[in-house]
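Predict both folds.
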Amino acid sequence: MRIAVIGANGQLGNDVVQAFARNGDDVTGLTHEQIELSNSESVGNCLSSLAPAIVVNTAAMHHVERCEEQPDRAYAVNALGARHLALTTCGLGAVLMHISTDYVFDGSKGKPYVESDAPLPLNVYGNTKLAGEHFVRTLNPKHFVLRVSAIYGKNPCRAKGGLNFVELMLKLARERGKVRVVDDEYVTPTSTEEIARQVVALSRSQEYGLYHATAEGSCSWYQFAREIFDLTDTPVTLEVARADEFPAKVPRPHYSVLENAALKARNLNVFQPWQAGIEKYLSDRAAVRQTT
């Protein structure tokens, strides 16, 4: 099957490309140099020339502070970009798989969010991503919208200076010997490799719609850091940070746990517990370091 993956050089896009390639698909990875989401002509020309059966959009303006500073640009990429993709893919008869975010919720529920819960974003990023969801869901009936949360992967995250949370924790431990992390914000750490596997599994179905797509279970950022250090036998003093110790410049949800209710209802869920994901990531990381 011919697949186009937008954002192919990103943290998630890289693994999505590899997952489709392993599956035997004819996959083309597209970066910002090949396609500009905010430009409808660029989107139309690029995808029309490729004529893919499935388009996977992993690209976004997802630096939360930058979105707040540049709301027009964030809307152009995250919302109008999704609109351009939905219109173009619908015209081509192609499936659109669009990656969204847990930040469409405000975090006040206090228990895992399901797909039927009403979104209420706290910031520009969340609002523009929610707008993008609506464009995709209304303009191309052959769509999958996947909300993900707290992702990490082997490919560098450019929006975070090349470091995901795992690499940041290990770096701080090496440099300082003591790390302080908040224990009152809850997420589901999810590896990009697992999300990519779920994307491929969904692409083989026609169960179009909105899906939460995260690892099973949840933890605080402190608990996630503890698991990272325990699995790597990292000598570090890990302490709980005060709630006001790292004031956020932009409001964020304090509870971002998603439940994969729709995937499970259709017997399509392939995710493991979050602990299994981080164990594999660290095992693969260690294997690579031994060979370099």
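Second protein follows, with its predicted structure tokens after the sequence.
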Amino acid sequence: MRVAVVGSNGQLGADIVSVFTSLGDEVASFTHSEIELSSLESVRSCLEGSNAEFVVNTAAMHHVEKCEQDPERAFAVNAVGARNLALVTRDMGAVVVHISTDYVFDGAKNEPYVEGDIALPLNVYGNSKLAGEGFVRTLNPRHFVLRTSALYGKSPCRAKGGRNFVELMLKLGRERGTVRVVDDEYVSPTSTISLARQISALSKCDNYGLYHSTAEGSCSWYEFAWAIFAIAAPSVKVEPALHSEFPAKVQRPRYSVLENLGLKHQGLNVFQSWREGLVEYLCAHVDAAVNQL
């Protein structure tokens, strides 16, 4: 199969390229510098030249504070960019996979969100991603819109200064010996390799639609940090904190756990638990960091 990955040098994109390549698929990679999502001409020129049958869009403006400061740019990339991808892939007869976010919800439900729940974003980032979902779902019937949560992977995350949450915790543990982490915000931590495997599984079917796509189970950020150090560095002390101790510049949902109800109903869910995903990640990618603790 001919696959195109937009945002191939990003945290998720790199693992998607790796998974499809390992399966023998022909993969065309487009980095952020090679394709401008907000330009229909750029999207058309890049994708039509690839002759791809299956296009995965991982590119987005996902620095929450920067989206709030520049909503015009956020919507140009996350909404208009998604529209451009949907239009071009429809014209090519290709399937489009669009990555969305748990931030389309306000967190007030306090129990896992399913695909049918009403989306009420709290910030510009969430609103721009929700608008992008709408464009993809209405413009290309052969679509998979995947909402995910709290991603971490081996490749640098540009929006987080190059470090994902796991790497940041290990760094802080190494420097301080004790870390304080919020215990009243809940997510489903999801490794990028597990999401890449789920996308690969979806490439083999035509059950198009909107799907929640996260690791199984949920935890607070404190519980996630505790699990990291319990595995990688038991000597580091982790203390629970309230979110009010770390004032945010932009409002975020305090509860954004997603339930993969659609995938399960279709018999397509291949996600493992968040703890299993964490163990796999730590074993494969952070030996050097752990040895320094």
